[in-house]
Amino acid sequence: MAFWRIYYHLVWSTKGRKNLITLQREASFHKYIIGKSDSLGCIIHAIGGTENHIHLVVSIPPSLAISDFVKKIKGSSAHQFNLESPSNIEKFSWQTGYGIFSLGGKQLNEAVNYVNNQKQHHSQGTVIASLEKDKFEDDPPKSSLRICK
After folding, report:
1. In the list 20, 30, 107, 132, which could disulfide-bond 103, CB 3.0-4.6 Å?
2. How far is residue 14 CA from its own chain's centroid?
3. Beta-bridge mates of residue 57
4. What single-letter DSSP state applies at residue 80?
5. Strand order in the sheet with 7-13
6. Strands 43-50 and 53-59
7. In order of start, what are the domains of the chain with their CATH numbers?
8. Global model pTM greater than 0.85
């Protein structure tokens, strides 16, 4: 077995940034995501968010592609949310894209604290803007780097 210590900060929003993650549903929703992550061999260090987006600090083993982890978590959690929802509740879905940020071991505690205190950061206006975009696009940012021959 390989030794690994890899930390990521992931964030994504509900489709249309709709406020669908209510306080009444949040704990069971987070518990489901933690359980699914565990079944994939991943470690959730922190999970938090607001009514319309979620943050995860997670370790994903090198044997699992990050995009596969996100796809499995987003797909299965939306499915589970809809299974548990009353029929008169709007169908739950996630936005297409997501944000991912790599962390060093020394940044782990700061990221965990930030994610665990999401509601406080949003109510006090102390969010980190780059982690709270309205939508993360699927395409990587365009680089100004040019390869010359």
Report:
1. 107
2. 11
3. 9, 46
4. H
5. 43-50, 53-59, 7-13, 99-103
6. antiparallel
7. 7-129 (3.30.70.1290)
8. no
